C-alpha cells in the first residue's frame, strides 16, 4: 500500500484525486487544499514557489510515497525545482495539448488555463514542442477558479461568463477545448451548453494518474481498504468542511461523464 499526497490551491484538484481513487483502490491518500493562497493562477512565480514548498514540506512530513501536483499552474512554476530537492516521485500536470492534437490534429485546439499558465514559459515550450502546424490557441479563464471555490456552478452565472470571454472566438473552427486547470473540470456542463457539438472536452487527469501508476510500480499493491484524509491549509477537514468536499466529489463524478 502506498500513501499518496495530492495538492492544489483549492478544491479543483479533487477531480484528480477522484481519478486516482477510482484507479488505485486500496491506497491511502492525503489531499491538501492550499485555500489560504487560492487562486494560484493570479500570483507571482516567487509567491508560488514559496507556497508550494510549504505544502510539499507538509506532505513529506506525513510520510507520503509520492506527490501529485494537481494544479497546472503550480506544476509549471515549481515541479522542476521540487524534483531537484526530493527523490520520491513528484507527478505534475500539464494541459493536455498533445492529447488533443493527437486525437484531433487536423483542426485547431483551444487551450483554456489560468493567466499565469497561459503566459508561462512551460506552456510556451509545450506548445512549441507539440504544435507543429500552429493549431493551438490559448485563452485565460480566471473567473472559473473563483466560481469553483464558491461552489457557484449554476449555469445562469457560468454560461454568460464563458460566452463573454469566448465571444471573439469562432468555436466552429476548433476540434476540442483543453481544460488546462483542474478547477475547470467542474464546469463541463456549462462548456457543453455553449460549445459546438463536434468540439470535444479534453483534460489531463487520466494521463497524470497513469504516470503516477508507472512511477509507483509495485508499491501500489493493495493490502486492504485505503483511507483518504483532507486538509484545508494545514487543518484537518471535519464536519461542514468534510461535507463540502463530499459535494465537490459528487459533482466531479457527474462531470466525469461529460466529454
Compute the gyration radius: what is it? 18 Å
Q: How much helix, percentage-wise, in residues? A: 40-55%
CATH fold-type name of the largest domain:
Rossmann fold
The unreliable regions are none
Distance between the termini: 32 Å
Number of domains: 2
The major sheet is characterized as: 6 strands, mixed
The tally of strands reads 10
Strand order of the largest sheet: 4-3-1-2-9-10
Strand content: 15-25%
- Derived from helix and strand composition plus strand pairing, the structural class reads alpha/beta
- CA-based shape: globular
Give the CATH architecture of the largest domain. Answer: 3-Layer(aba) Sandwich
Mean pLDDT: 93
Helices and strands, in order, run as EHEHEHEHEHHEHHEHEHEEH
CATH class of the largest domain: Alpha Beta
What is the count of DSSP helices, taking H or I runs of 4+ residues? 11
Give a description of the structure.
The protein contains 11 helices and 10 strands. It is an alpha/beta fold and 259 residues long. It folds into 2 domains: 3-93 and 205-255, Rossmann fold, CATH 3.40.50.1860; 97-202, Rossmann fold, CATH 3.40.50. A 6-stranded mixed β-sheet has the order 4-3-1-2-9-10, sandwiched between helices. A 4-stranded parallel β-sheet has the order 6-5-7-8, sandwiched between helices. It is globular. The mean pLDDT is 93.
